[in-house]
Structure formats: structure tokens, C-alpha cells
Amino acid sequence: MIRETIITTVSAENDVHIAPMGVAIEGDVHVIAPFRPSTTLDNLRANPVAVVNYTDDVRVFAGCLTGRRDWPTRPATRVAGVVLEQSLAHAELEVARVEEDEVRPRFHCVAVHAETHAPFRGFNRAQAAVVEAAILVSRLHMLPLEKIKREIAYLEIAVGKTAGPAEAEAWGWLMERIVEFERQATEGKRA
Ligand SMILES: Cc1cc2nc3c(=O)[nH]c(=O)nc-3n(C[C@H](O)[C@H](O)[C@H](O)COP(=O)(O)O)c2cc1C
């Protein structure tokens, strides 16, 4: 089972980093698997703790992928990390073991503390669509643009029918990013 979460980590220089990551839950163990190279990977090596933030504010997912990484945080309770203010719940993790890999090392973490801050308010299709679109945006350089645009056209139906203001804003940021990517690709071809 993989949950789509916001992982907060801290560098050796104490800089906070916020990134959307899938976390595989295997019993009590949380596995974080950042691709090389990434700041999350560097931070987990320098400071082997993380906070897994569960949020329904999809602007954080879309924002991190579109250059809007400055989300409010507060100090964690047990580990030397930070909690995302928008989290409905969070768990504080310590890295127990690293499974090295050329492409994607796997950090096996144990939860040493967990807190709930706000209730779960039910599923929203637009939130799911924004998370899917954010994944597509994170793969703009890897997937054919036509495939991405086809999937976006389908996801847009749920956004049109069920989004609130936060989901609509997040969707807008992702669509701007795709338009910009396409413009640059077209210009690149002409040059
Ligand atoms: C829902 C979602 C899940 C993601 N899961 C992962 C992941 O498990 N590993 C990863 O390396 N990147 C993942 N990404 C992409 C990263 O968030 C993005 O590339 C990010 O910039 C990571 O690099 P960084 O630590 O240097 O910021 C995910 C993106 C989204 C939207």
C-alpha cells in the first residue's frame, strides 16, 4: 500500500525541504524511496529523520511541483524535523535501515511519534485528480506529451464537477506548468 504524502526533511545546514512522496506502509515500517538525485535523499542521509504529513490541501502537492515550496511548518514533537501546518495528521520517523539502489534507494523508517490534528472529511474526486496530474507533471520529461494531455483531459472532468477553490487553484498551477513545458518544447524544436 502506498500513500501519497508530503515528506518534510531537514538538511545538514538546517534548511527545511518539502516534497510530495509516495510512502509504502509495510506493517510498522514506512518506506521512503527518493530517486537519485534529490534533496530529500541528501537530507535523509545528512539527518536521518523525516516527518510524513497527511494533508488534503492539494495545493501543497501542486505547489511543490511548480516552484511554490514555501509552505508553513512548525517544529516536530520527537524528532529534529518539522510538521507541515496543513497536515490533518503526521508521523515522525527515524531511518532504521537504508536499502541502497543505483536509481532509487529505499529508506526503511520507524514511526516514533504520531499526532492527529483535524478530521478526515471524505473523498473528493478533484483532490485525487490534482494528485494524479501532479504525478504527470513530475514526469513531463519522461512521458510523451500527447499521453499526458489525454490523461489531463479525463482528469479535468472531475475537477470541473467537484473542485473547491483550493483544488481549482492547484489545478491552475499544474496546467500553467504543462502549457509552459509545451511552449519551451515547441521553441526548442524551432531553434
Ligand atoms: C504524488 C506524488 C508522489 C511522488 N512520489 C515520489 C517518490 O516516491 N519518490 C521521488 O523521488 N519522487 C516522487 N515524486 C516527485 C517528487 O515530489 C519531486 O520530483 C521532488 O522534486 C523530489 O525531489 P526533491 O527531494 O529534490 O525535491 C512524487 C510526486 C508526486 C506529485
Describe this structure in a few short sentences:
Helix content is 38%, strand content 30%. The chain has 5 helices and 8 strands.
Question: What does this protein look like?
Answer:
- The protein has a 6-stranded antiparallel beta barrel with strand order 1-2-3-8-7-4. A two-stranded antiparallel sheet has the order 5-6.
- The radius of gyration is 17 Å and the shape is globular.
- The mean pLDDT is 97.
- It is α+β, with helices and mostly antiparallel strands and 191 residues long.
- The relative contact order is 0.15.
- It has helices at 39-46, 59-65, 125-138, 145-162, 165-190, and strands at residues 2-10, 16-26, 29-32, 49-54, 73-75, 82-84, 89-99, 106-116.
- The structure holds flavin mononucleotide (FMN).
- Flavin mononucleotide (FMN) binds next to strand 2, helix 1, helix 2 and helix 3.
List how many beta strands DSSP finds. 8
**β-strand amount:** 25-35%
Q: Helix/strand/pairing class, anyone? A: alpha+beta
Small molecules in complex: flavin mononucleotide
- The arrangement of helices and strands along the chain is EEEHEHEEEEHHH
Uncertain spans: none
Helix content class: 25-40%
Total number of helical segments? 5
Average pLDDT works out at 97
The largest sheet, given as strand count, sense and whether it forms a barrel, is: 6 strands, antiparallel, barrel
The N- to C-terminal Cα distance equals 45 Å
Query: What is Rg?
Result: 17 Å
Strand order within the widest beta sheet: 1-2-3-8-7-4
**Principal-axes shape call:** globular
